[in-house]
Design goal:
about 500 residues; five-stranded mixed beta sheet; two-stranded antiparallel ribbon; about 15% strand
Length: about 500
């Protein structure tokens, strides 16, 4: 007796295969023979993305069939976070998922009970997001939005993925993407260093133009007071636009000591002669950047000290704090160090000091006078040798002898006040002998990179959540931690959405 023919199992990837076969046939046919290479690239990019989307769709459909088959053969009613067992099973529940390849439909089973929310075991197995956009699509949005404007990010995603996400959705996705950064860094263990390695901290602030509702209360009050100013169409002398909110940035890094002398930093009067090589300064390594426009400076400084203690819990290394001399920052740094019983050495940025010296120099020289450079070099070398008070006395004496008064003397007096008032933080002789850095180039570069290059682009007006998210994500990129952070973030997101034990135990395949 002959056997009956039995129907074969349909190929779950038949549609993907047909799309691929059609593409290959088109590439081998006469229509593609005359295409230029760029036209071929464009064709493959478009048709290839459609094949990938269909592959993903076919795979999801295969998993849906397996889930339905398993539920029919041996149903295991799950319980939700509320402990209630769902006993009613429905097939064919659908939701959309926007991905890197386009939008697909996810079909899955729903376990139900009267009066309570449904459970979808497939959502757990696939770790589907709460909203429509996949984790990889949100990741791409976070990368693109930290590079350029939200409009440019939306356009870049559209070119790669098609119309899968809008500008407002990109903004919301970026805010959500930055939600676990603080928790991520609390769990990081820095690389160990020897006790001879200097531990360096630096803090700085930079303003970000904000929308009116995102300004701090004092700035909002100042902005409201502008309406009563003398002019309607421009600022009067001394008035400020009152549209920025200060962001505070902090950096912590390690640096091997590099001993130098004053002449290695500032050329002597007349310039350098001979072939004596300059001693290089210390180099930053293992940099950790952090910043916030939402938190106050005290909070950011506290995080920087937390990072320092992660690296040197026993306070055995030399802690050096580089600042630009802002009184408010100095007070917060000293308070935090005292609270932790941490010995720190505060050094004011040499470049900032030199600005005051140049202002004083023009009080004694006419514009364009080449001798001003040698005068500045003499004063700077004396300051580097640890004689800032003596330099202040010298400038005062020269101003008196020259009979300078009023505006002509203002720059000299400002320099003298700065050198005498900040003398305890100008011990460059000690810093050079110990091999410490004496300039805030690392944090200045961070301000330019994290804020000026993105948050300060022309015409940008920021909301608080968006500015905070972009600032923190750019810091993560600068720390080279983005890939590690993203794995941490997606794991935390899964825990938040699917923390019920009953859901985690669902199995959808044989």
């Amino acid at each position: 007796m002959e056997r009956y023919d039995t129907p074969s199992t349909p190929d779950p990837f038949d549609r993907s295969t047909r799309l691929f076969t059609t593409l290959v046939a088109g590439l081998t046919g006469p229509a593609s023979a005359g295409l230029h290479h760029d036209e071929l690239e464009e064709l493959l990019d478009l048709r290839g993305r459609e094949i990938l989307r269909q592959l993903l769709s076919d795979h999801l459909e295969l998993r849906a069939r397996r889930e339905e088959d398993t539920a029919r053969r041996c149903p295991h009613p799950p319980s939700g976070p509320d402990g209630v067992v769902r006993t009613r099973l429905e097939y064919g529940h659908r939701r959309l998922l926007a991905t890197l390849f386009g939008t697909v439909v996810v079909r899955r089973c729903a376990w139900r009970a009267p009066g309570i929310s449904n459970l979808h075991p497939a959502d757990v197995a696939l770790s589907l997001p709460r909203l429509r956009h996949s984790h990889q699509l949100v990741r791409l949005a976070a990368i693109e939005a930290t590079r350029g404007s939200f409009d440019a990010a939306t356009a870049a995603i559209g070119r790669r993925c098609g119309p899968v996400i809008g500008k407002r959705q990109v903004e919301h996705a970026v805010v959500a993407a930055a939600g676990d950064i603080d928790a991520f860094y609390r769990l990081q263990i820095p690389l160990p260093c020897t006790t001879s390695t200097t531990l360096v901290m630096s803090v700085d602030g930079k303003g970000i133009v904000m929308r009116p509702d995102a300004l701090r209360p004092a700035t909002q009050k100042a902005a409201a007071a502008r309406g009563t100013g003398r002019f309607r169409t421009r600022l009067a002398s001394g008035e400020k636009p009152a549209r920025k909110r200060m962001a505070t940035l902090a950096v912590v890094y390690d640096a091997e000591p590099a001993v130098r002398r004053p002449h290695d930093v500032i050329a002597p009067p007349g310039g350098r002669h001979g072939n004596r090589p300059l001693r290089p300064g210390p180099r930053a390594k293992n940099k950790w950047l952090s910043g916030s426009v939402a938190d106050d400076p005290a909070t950011v400084i506290r995080r920087a000290f937390d990072q320092a203690e992660y690296r040197d819990a026993g306070h055995r290394r030399s802690w050096v704090v580089l600042v630009d001399g802002a009184v408010h920052q100095l007070g917060l740094i000293q308070q935090e160090a005292a609270r932790r019983n941490a010995g720190i050495s505060i050094v004011i940025d040499l470049v900032h000091v030199l600005e005051y010296v140049w202002s004083a120099a023009w009080c004694f020289h006419e514009s364009g006078d080449a001798a001003v450079e040698d005068w500045v070099a003499v004063q700077a070398l004396a300051i580097l040798a640890g004689h800032s008070r003596r330099v202040a006395q010298t400038i005062t004496a020269q101003a008196d002898n020259a009979g300078l008064k009023g505006d002509r003397r203002r720059g000299a007096d400002a320099c003298v006040r700065y050198l005498t008032g900040k003398a305890e933080f100008l011990r460059y002789d000690r810093a050079l002998a110990a091999g410490w850095p004496i300039a805030t180039g690392v944090i200045e570069g961070a301000c330019r990179h994290l804020i000026a290059d993105r948050l300060d682009i022309s015409g940008a007006r920021w909301g608080l959540d968006g500015a905070e998210a972009v600032l923190k994500l750019r810091a993560v990129h600068s720390n080279s931690d983005f890939d590690t952070y993203w794995r941490f973030h997606t794991a935390r997101e899964h825990e938040r959405l699917y923390q019920a034990a009953g859901q985690r135990e669902c199995h959808l395949t044989d």
